[in-house]
Amino acid sequence: MMSTMLARESSAFRPRFSVVQVEESTDLAPRFDAEGLLTVVTTNAENGDVVMVGAMNAEALARTIETGEAHYWSRSRQCLWHKGATSGLIQHVVELRIDDDQDAVWLRVTTAGVGANCHVGYRSCFYRRVDLPVDKDISATAARLVFCETEKTFDPIVVYGDAPNPTQL
């Protein structure tokens, strides 16, 4: 699989030949990490909320550009993932930005259906916050999570049925 990812990486995008080209030109010449991935931050195009953070390989980035719909590399499933292909909650890309050294992507999206982005059923994958202790001497193992979203947008059992949960222990 890695050779397929690297082959697509080298053929789908411009080669990197200088810092000026990478930082100051109009060439899309992404730099994928040793595993062939870029970090992707995905936000709601309407309100700016972060809805998920994921990864893209060269194929996912190319497919996202070609279709205008978000594609990711699923690290847990080890496969290309068209967001919403199973659930119908397709992320339509409003804007795709790449950072200064072209190793991270920011997607601004609208999400079809009920607008949820998390396989657990919440609007955002960031549906909890860490309750930071007042006492700074408390260890991280004592940290607790607080739900920011208290109601799910959809029932994952209804949407996904018996499909395997992508969360890995």
Estimated structural class: alpha+beta
State the share of residues found in helices, binned by percent: 10-25%
Q: What is the total tally of β strands?
A: 8
Question: What's the N-to-C terminus distance?
Answer: 23 Å
What's the short story on this structure?
The chain is α+β, with helices and mostly antiparallel strands and 169 residues long. Helix content is 19%, strand content 27%.
Task: Please provide a written account of the structure.
The chain is α+β, with helices and mostly antiparallel strands. It has four helices and eight strands; from the N terminus they run ααββαββββββα. The strands form three sheets. Strands 2-1-6-5 form a four-stranded mixed beta sheet, with helices on one face.
Relevant terms:
169 residues, 4-stranded mixed beta sheet, alpha+beta, 27% strand, globular
Helix and strand layout, with pairings?
Elements: H1 2-12, H2 19-24, E1 38-44, E2 50-56, H3 58-67, E3 71-74, E4 79-82, E5 91-98, E6 104-111, E7 128-131, E8 144-147, H4 156-160
Parallel strand pairs: 1-6
Antiparallel strand pairs: 1-2, 3-4, 5-6, 7-8
